[in-house]
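From the methods appendix. Each design record in this collection lists the tokenized structure first, followed by the designed amino acid sequence. Records were kept in a plain field format so they could be parsed without special tools. The example shown here is representative of the layout used throughout.

RECORD:
FOLD TOKENS (196 positions):
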């Protein structure tokens, strides 16, 4: 609702607001407005798609099917230390992330190469886009799976007050990510040049 309301407000705003007349010319305002309209419209359709997929998965039993497949696949490999609730949950999470990436990939491609390209914001090639998204996928798996495994272990072993330890672990994990992101994770995707 809010995105649709904002889209309608943006469509009606055809003149530079009085407060910005001194700092914003008509051409820049129109370009900004056009980009905002395209972005809002894209988000409305994308959100509708995501809600539709979520409802379909809930109603069709796809989530329980993916869970059963996770259990079946791990039991098939017969690895003792993974054939438990944590192992099943991690494989289930990996499958769900993979499904999510596959379902949203066409939308991401359209947004990057239609919406942003039209406005001149995107300069990357399709090969670079694929490489970047593959790195993001691997990185998200490398971060989320160990985090989820440790969190599930805390929930299983800490009894009635597991939520305190789970909260402390999550806070510590986020702080560590906050410190390692600029030095180790961000340079994987971008080149940084020191300011001189």
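DESIGN:
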């Amino acid at each position: 609702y809010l995105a649709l309301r904002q889209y309608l407000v943006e469509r009606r705003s055809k003149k530079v607001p009085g407060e910005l007349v001194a700092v914003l010319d008509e051409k820049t305002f129109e370009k900004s407005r056009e980009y905002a309209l395209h972005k809002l419209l894209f988000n409305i359709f994308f959100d509708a798609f995501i809600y539709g997929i979520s409802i379909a998965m809930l109603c069709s039993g796809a989530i329980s099917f993916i869970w059963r497949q996770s259990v079946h696949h791990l039991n098939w490999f017969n690895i003792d230390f993974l054939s438990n609730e944590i192992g099943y949950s991690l494989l289930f999470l990996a499958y769900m992330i993979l499904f999510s990436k596959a379902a949203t990939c066409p939308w991401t491609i359209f947004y990057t190469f239609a919406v942003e390209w039209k406005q001149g914001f995107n300069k990357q090639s399709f090969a670079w886009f694929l490489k970047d998204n593959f790195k993001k996928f691997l990185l998200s798996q490398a971060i989320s799976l160990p985090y989820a495994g440790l969190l599930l272990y805390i929930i299983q072993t800490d009894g009635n007050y597991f939520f305190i330890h789970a909260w402390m672990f999550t806070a510590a994990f986020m702080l560590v990510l906050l410190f390692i992101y600029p030095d180790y994770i961000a340079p994987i995707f971008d080149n940084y040049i020191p300011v001189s």
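APPENDIX NOTE: The radius of gyration is 22 Å.
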